[in-house]
Amino acid sequence: MTEQQRRTRLAPSERRALIIDAATRQIAEGGYNTFTLSKLAEDCGMTRAGIEHHFSSREELLIAVLLHRDDLDAFAITTPVEGRDPRTFDEDSAWKVLDNLVIRNAGQPELLRLYTILGAEALDPQHPAHDYFAERTRTARDLLADLSGSWHPQPRAFALAVLAVLDGLQLQWLRFPDEDLVALWKGAGGALARKTA
């Protein structure tokens, strides 16, 4: 956040957006377990009470960060096919959505790292984002099954395979960022596509 933004009186929605952006960066760098509202307040040029005026807890802010990223991704990924029922997609349209997802993720490694770290931490049922990640996985699986339902003989199996490949490739790319995530996906996605023929 710039010094000007710190000093300027912002509308509540703008202030919340700036807090979410700063929280996203902080969580991406160190994971949720090192994230504190006090450090966030310092990064935003606010008091902790000021942060708590907008978000009552770390947990509430974490979910806001995750939902905000989901909203941005959904818009970017589905724009080329907006307004269409996923259950009516042909194979080419479905692969276009998947390609858009990978291209978007390749352009935001810090957010992909955030999701990877939080997703691993949230395997613990006591983690505040445990239910969020479980529901997000179910939703992604269902959407992929819908995307492939009109052309794949086993939509659910295809959905599980795509999620497994995407998760694995993204993890490899985060470990070896010199690799080209889109090229890795084209190779692995091509292998998945050949299995459907």
Automatic annotation (TrEMBL):
It comes from the Bacteria. Residues 36-55 bind DNA. Keywords: DNA-binding, Transcription, Transcription regulation. Pfam families: TetR_N (PF00440). Residues 13-73 form the HTH tetR-type domain. InterPro entries: Homeodomain-like_sf (IPR009057), HTH-type_TetR-like_transc_reg (IPR050109), HTH_TetR (IPR001647), Tet_transcr_reg_TetR-rel_C_sf (IPR036271). This is Transcriptional regulator, TetR family.
